[in-house]
Amino acid sequence: MTQTIPGFQSDDPPLRIGHGYDLHRLEPVTPHGPGKPLVVGGVRISWEGPDPNDPPKGPVAHSDGDALLHALTDAILGAAALPDIGQLFPNDDPANTDRDSADILAEAVRLMRGAGWRFANVDLTVLLQTPKLGPHKPAIRERIGKLLDLPAARVNLKGKTGEHVGPVGEGRAIETHAVVLLIRER
Ligand code: MG
User: Fold this and answer.
1) Cis (ω within 30 of 0) for the bond into 94?
2) How far is the CA of 25 from the centre of ligand 1 (A)?
3) Cα 137–Cα 140–Cα 146 angle in degrees, nearest 5
4) Does residue 39 form part of some domain?
């Protein structure tokens, strides 16, 4: 039997999936270079390189460079068929300089809810050679859960290295992926 929701056409499924991706170059942090402090999923993380004498690295970005929140924002906007993060928050707009990515995410969530959707779950992947993400996972899941108003059990986070090859593996970039499932609320 086809389940219908009032005001919703039965051939239009009450679920939407969205995928988001982001990459930021990692460079030595100011004053050693153009990098900003490393923030992943709203949590500040100390960068640990192979040589302790090397200056810490962080993302080169117009905003605060939180690649995980950027991928998540794009996944939410994509699932709701809204304009993407670059259209809504252009990187040549001075209002977005050093902007807290949690603000950007909050605006995407507001638009998504306004369009009649709510979250089922989110699944996130971070590719970062160093530092190891494991110790930071609980804090990141809790922070993102708070930002989305979701229990941490519906916010999954996976960490991977770049196996010492390519931009991620050579410590020159952080890469992130996000998948979001939305449920039609009205
Ligand atoms: Mg970004």
Assistant:
1) no
2) 10
3) 140
4) yes
